[in-house]
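Final report, Chapter 2: Outcomes

The project's central promise was a pipeline that accepts a single protein chain and returns its three-dimensional structure in a standardized token representation, suitable for archiving and comparison. That pipeline is now operational. To close this chapter, we reproduce one record exactly as it appears in the project archive, with the input sequence first and the structure output second.
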Amino acid sequence: MNSIPWRVQFGIVAAGYAAVLLLAALLVYDRHMQYVNHPADVMAAGGMYAGGDLILALFIGCLFFIPTFLLILVIRKSETAYTRYARVLLGLCFTVPVCLLGLLAVANQENSFLGEFCFYRLLASPLVIVGLVLSWLFAPFSRARHLILYALGIEAATLVIGLVVFVIASGAVRGSH
């Protein structure tokens, strides 16, 4: 029995990512339309809407696990492909310290696109850590495992530093009242 060619497998993975991106765009647009069509409700129950936004962001982040898992299964037999994947993960993880610094830089600005982007990147950090752990567990090659482990260290250390900064900042705010 013939196996499925690599091009077809990568096509399926790409289609999976495209489907998740399309679904995410539709969900975010629908959420935006709720804000536009019901502004009084948003003002009356702002915390509930913020909670809904958080759940939506986590749901979209979890949706990306599906094509990523398929990608891991496709590239698992190729050391070159898995090492490239690990390098991409390492590059992705360098965005989290940049976003932490960006969030601290725009902390006093309201409705900053940079601040929102950085906030959601930091919010996605625990999901990225789960994805890194799964990628590390499935990595059959030592070079890729090392790169993913470095990425995991950067992601986890930045998350811990961000939490410490948040705790210190919230304590300073409470202390000034």
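Archive annotation: The first helix runs from residue 6 to 37.
This record, like all others produced under the grant, will remain available to the consortium after the project formally closes.
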